[in-house]
Design brief:
The complex is a heterodimer. Chain A is of the alpha/beta class. Chain A has 13 helices and ten strands. Chain B is elongated and about 85 Å long. The chains are: A alpha/beta, B alpha/beta.
Chain lengths: 308, 380
């Protein structure tokens, strides 16, 4: 799949190693899709909510809330997802309370295979396929998924349920969830990485796990925080001799050399990542941003434009 | 030796905690490496599913058993070591199976549990299962082996507290008396729903089985029933693990990158460790941008840099000089912008966390081999 039709999917799941900028990429994808006139929901999964604050709004919590024109956010948590789902099954709140608010039942529900993950994923996927007034409720649902290991666990739950639960509503839900997740015309998993040794290694492993392991349609890999090429090799050679100089030249030369070295290492890792993946990656610029606010997100969205 | 390693000198166990992507695994490996280089027998145990530690140690793969990092690897990296460095990766499922095998009264019960679908989910995928087994493995290693230092690299936990609370939460479930009474009759009756109706809990069971299908309920009943005889052994062990964590021979090491989110997470964890009476050995701010302009006033604009360039030896000529000066000015100001926001977060971590604090500068290369780990250890 080429990166350029990513935003025409109904569901884009964003994941990667911790600290690589998943929330920023999720927020930027939403901003870009909204610029193209789409109605977007960004769903975080049981997270310390980051996307809404990054876009200048207040945290949504478990209830979907608009944050910018065209963009709504939600933070799905297991308790609310269970309540919502259970009410859909039993329909009567009094029964829900009698059964599901029962302490013993709560213990029990923890042991049902990956129930919390399934319900949270189910809530998100439900949004991705729900309709209102004869058209999809959202043009695009972006899931800011948990980091690597937890994401594999989360995205693997429908399949785990299909292996363990022989019947009942949970199984039927696992079936449509698995179908939606593995449909390449509707869903894509986008990975975020950093141009560093271990994140690159991990991204390649994750890509294989999601593709061969879970048969999920893979979207683009975003290589976040790529330093720009500010100096030529011969300029850097010249600056090397100047780095011991007195201020202001010495410190400036050292900053330039550090930038050049960082750029060189990052470029080598970008090459490595492309080789490991066997396909191209989408570089996103390293920003000298003091705070990760809406301005920074807009700039990342600018950089994505034309690439996704 | 840096302040953090000094603080760990009298410890037998170091537990490295922090949010994902802060270099926890590298810090854990560097701590173990430095003990080995000082002549000790040190083990680093990671539970990270992404096998980062193997990459860093150049071991290729790591398994559930401890592997000795070959002495040649030290020689190749130009390091002299009089001790031994071991590494392993925790296999969560295997550790559960070992635990069941250890506590099962007989082979039949063991096989029945190992084959139960609920058990397979609990041991493989239940949230907190990794964290519980990390604690379990740590206990086993600390009581049954004779390492001078065991360093545990903890999972990239979404919620810091999972790590401390997971054993209790899981045991609360498997040991819950009422749950056992509710679900265990399935064992005797064969048919779960019918039996529950007799004991007057049919309403709950019927609603639940609409939700999950009744087979799942009888699996749970079976699981809990089988577990009954083993629960006390599990509980006792979990209590011992918990008390192990409060002993003075243990030190928690908080690792954060200089970002607001990561420091928040580290401080949050710190406060909970303190509340739970668990010893904090120190904190590490990792990958900190060095301050290159510790002078009053803003970083220089292009013209003073162009002048300095023109005055210097081998200057690139006036034209190229101004263009280069502009980029130099930009490079320095961007660098300082990173340095300042990093410094602010490092300071917040230093003030908020007890025990020695070290800041590790962003190192030249990624830490991905023994030499890199040794360079990292030098900062700890």
């Amino acid at each position: 799949m080429s990166a350029s039709d990513l935003l025409d999917r109904r569901l884009v799941v964003v994941t990667g190693k911790g600290g690589v900028g998943k929330s920023t990429v999720s927020a930027a994808l939403a901003v870009l899709a909204a610029r193209r006139g789409k109605r977007v929901l960004v769903a975080e999964v049981d997270a310390r909510e980051r996307v809404a604050p990054m876009l200048g709004g207040r945290p949504s919590g478990p209830v979907i809330r608009p944050v910018l024109p065209g963009i709504s956010t939600v933070n799905v948590d297991p308790r609310h997802a269970l309540e919502e789902y259970a009410l859909m099954v039993v329909r009567v709140r009094a029964i829900y309370q009698a059964v599901f608010e029962n302490r013993v039942v709560r213990f029990f529900l923890r042991a049902v295979p990956s129930l919390a993950e399934t319900l949270m994923l189910g809530k998100v996927l439900h949004e991705a396929r729900s309709e209102a007034h004869g058209r999809p409720r959202w043009d695009l649902v972006v899931v800011d998924a948990p980091a690597t290991g937890h994401a594999v666990q989360l995205l693997g739950t429908p399949r785990a349920l299909l292996d363990t639960v022989p019947g009942g509503p949970l199984r039927r839900d696992a079936e449509w969830m698995q179908a939606l997740l593995s449909a390449p015309d509707r869903t894509a998993v986008a990975l975020v990485s950093l141009p560093e040794e271990m994140p690159v290694t991990e991204t390649a492993e994750l890509d294989a796990q999601l593709g061969q392991g879970l048969s999920l349609p893979r979207g683009p890999v975003f290589l976040n925080a790529m330093p720009g090429a500010m100096f030529t090799t011969s300029e850097l050679d010249g600056l090397r001799g100047l780095s011991p100089s007195a201020p202001p030249l010495g410190p400036a030369a050292r900053a330039a050399l550090l930038q050049g070295a960082q750029r060189e290492r990052a470029e080598a890792q970008a090459v490595r990542l492309r080789e490991l993946l066997g396909r191209d990656v989408v570089p996103l610029p390293l920003l000298a941003a003091d705070r990760w606010g809406r301005r920074a997100v807009e700039r990342i969205a600018d950089a994505m434009d034309g690439q996704v | 030796m840096g302040a953090l390693l000094r603080s760990l000198q009298g410890k037998r166990i170091a537990i490295v905690v922090g949010s994902g992507g802060v270099g926890k695994t590298s810090v854990a490996a560097a701590i173990a490496l430095s003990r080995a280089m000082a002549g000790g027998r040190a083990l680093v145990c990671t539970i990270d599913p992404a096998r980062r530690l193997a990459t860093a140690l150049g071991l290729g793969t790591l398994g559930n058993a401890e592997a000795l990092v070959p002495p040649e690897a030290f020689t190749r990296a130009g390091l002299a070591s009089t001790g031994q460095l071991f590494a392993m990766m925790l296999d969560v499922k295997r550790t559960w199976d070992d635990l069941v095998t250890r506590h099962a009264p007989d082979a039949a019960t063991r096989d029945r549990i190992l084959g139960n679908r609920i058990y397979q989910q609990v041991s493989g995928a239940l949230a907190g299962s990794q964290e519980y087994m990390a604690m379990e493995k740590l206990y086993e290693l600390s009581t049954e082996r004779d390492y001078d230092l065991i360093v545990l690299d903890t999972p990239p936990t979404a919620h810091a507290l999972d790590f401390l609370e997971a054993p209790d939460r899981i045991l609360d479930f498997v040991g819950n008396e009422t749950a056992r009474k509710l679900f265990a009759p399935a064992l005797d009756a064969g048919r779960f729903g019918a039996r529950l109706l007799q004991v007057g809990t049919g309403f709950v069971a019927k609603t639940l089985s609409r939700f999950t299908g009744s087979d799942v309920l009888s699996d749970v009943g079976d699981f809990l029933g089988q577990f009954q005889g083993m629960y006390d052994g599990f509980k006792e062990r979990a209590t011992e693990v918990r008390s192990l964590l409060t002993r003075p021979e243990v030190g928690f090491v908080l690792v954060a990158s200089p970002s607001p989110l990561s420091v928040d997470e580290a401080l949050f964890f710190h406060d909970h460790l303190r509340t739970a009476g668990m010893p904090v050995a120190g904190s590490v701010a990792n990958r900190v941008t060095p301050d290159l302009w510790p002078f009053p006033g803003p970083t220089p604009g292009a013209s003073p840099l162009a002048e300095a360039l023109a005055a210097g030896p081998g200057s690139g000529g006036a034209d190229g000089g101004l263009d280069l000066a502009e980029r130099l000015s930009l490079a320095l100001s961007q660098h300082q912008s990173f340095a300042h926001s990093d410094a602010r977060e490092v300071e917040r971590l230093r003030r908020g966390a007890s025990g020695p604090h070290v800041a590790v500068p962003r190192l030249e290369g990624d830490v991905h081999d023994l030499a890199g780990l040794a360079a990292l250890a030098a900062h700890l």
